[in-house]
Amino acid sequence: MPSVFVQGRPVGSYPRLAPEARHGTVRRITEVGAEVLHKPCRDVTEFGPDLAALINDMFLTMYVAEGAGLAANQVGVDLRLFVYDCPDDDGVRHVGHIVNPVLAPLDPTGRRLIEEGEGCLSVPGATMEVPRPDRAVVRGYDKEGAPLLIEGTGYFARCLAHETDHVNGQVYIDRLSRRDRKEALRQATDRREDVYARRAAKERSLTA
User: Fold this and answer.
1) How many C-beta atoms surround the C-beta of residue 104 within 10 A?
2) Which CATH superfamily is domain 4-207 in?
3) Signed CA dihedral, 102, 88, 29, 190: sign only
4) What digits encode the pLDDT tens for the residues 29-84?
5) Which one of 163, 183, 193, 203 is the catalytic residue?
6) Quick one: what percent of the chain has pLDDT higher than 70?
7) What is the pTM of this model?
8) pLDDT tier at 113 (50, 70, 90 boundaries)?
9) Does the annotation count 163 as an active-site position?
10) Which one of 21, 34, 49, 78 is separated from 13 by 20 to 30 angstroms, measured CA to CA?
11) What is the 3-state secondary structure (H, E, C) of 107-132?
12) What DSSP letter does each residue of the chain carry, written as one string?
């Protein structure tokens, strides 16, 4: 099996960072509580250089924050779009972006829920157990407007579901009990300073 899939297609080799990141600028990551994170995003209707530039910025911002995925509203942009660079449970790397993503409903009889730790760049430093299906299928478009279908299993399926939640105005802690949500916010308060110091150091190393 190939070790890397880019936009859902196998490739022989791929750089450590997606090439888009070389042209990007780091943006501030919005945190839970910001209005843009808690309402459904608008569909992308214009495909062109502005969209490509946003994707470049999102890739670099994701790498600086050491994330596996990043949605546009996490950098304050109210559009249905996310980028990802995420392994699945077999160690296969998946890299790409998807515009106007829609998570396909899965047959409930064949769906297996896995409860594993999940974090979010907009809830810095917090990790909580969240049940997610072990498979995800997302349909959308690439930055040129060509139709796209991305399938994932294991951790990559979790990433696809998590990022699609974002464009629908849902943060992962919205799926938690009131008690667990309170614990996630407490973790973020305790760890935020360390997380931001690490991001600043990473930014210096990637943009020097």
Assistant:
1) 11
2) Peptide deformylase (3.90.45.10)
3) positive
4) 999 999 999 999 999 999 999 999 999 999 999 999 999 999 999 999 999 999 99
5) 163
6) 97
7) 0.95
8) confident
9) yes
10) 49
11) CHHHCCEEEEEEECCCCCCCEEEEEE
12) --SEEETTEEES---SS-GGGGG----PPP-TT-GGGGSPPBPP---SHHHHHHHHHHHHHHHHTT-SEEEGGGGT--BSEEEEEEE-TTS-EEEEEEEEEEEPPPPGGG--EEEEEEE-TTSTT-EEEEEEESEEEEEEE-TTS-EEEEEEEHHHHHHHHHHHHHHTT--GGGGS-HHHHHHHHHHHHHHHHHHHHHHHHHHHHHH-
What residue type is 8 in one-letter code? G
Residue 81's Cβ-count burial label (10 Å; 0-12, 13-18, 19+) is buried
* N-term to C-term CA, the chain: 35
User: Which has the closest alpha carbon to 81: 91, 90, 72?
Assistant: 72
Amino acid at 91: G
Judging by DSSP bridges, how do beta strands 93-103 and 113-119 pair with one another?
unpaired
Pairing of strands 93-103, 4-6: parallel
Domain ranges of the chain: 4-207
